[in-house]
Design goal:
mainly alpha, 5 helices
Length: 129
């Protein structure tokens, strides 16, 4: 078996998944793109395992672990997406502001820069001590 065929297919799958992660705004499509990228990695692991004729079949064993991790990731990811959709009414990744960091001085939503000057309770207690 030539190694070039599965390697080229894996590269195409990975690039398609990477494009999906970078270009999509829907969280479910982003999760599907991540799964596509993991499947490309699995294809490479199995192809190199067969090509190298490994007696321990380490590539295939690692592929099974990757599949198990991908299943757990998609389960937790879908639960989070469904919870966000239930609370927000949208699964658009760009509109998720609650998960973003606190506003800085260059935040367009805070023209006065007041959010950057606010202290957390821990900082207030430290300043009082």
């Amino acid at each position: 078996m030539h190694l070039a065929y599965p390697a080229v297919l894996a590269v195409l799958l990975f690039c398609t998944g990477l494009y999906g992660v970078l270009a999509r705004r829907n969280a479910i499509l982003v999760l599907m793109s991540v799964e596509l990228m993991l499947n490309a990695v699995n294809l490479n692991l199995v192809a190199f395992d067969v090509w190298l004729r490994d007696t321990l079949h380490a590539g295939q064993a690692l592929t099974l672990f990757t599949i198990a991790i991908a299943a757990a990731e998609i389960g937790i990811g879908l639960a989070i997406v469904l919870l966000v959709y239930r609370n927000r009414g949208s699964s658009d990744v760009d509109r998720l502001r609650d998960l973003a960091e606190t506003a800085g001085p260059d935040d367009p939503d805070d023209p006065d820069g007041q959010a950057a000057n606010q202290q957390t309770p821990a900082e207030q207690a430290e300043a009082a001590a």
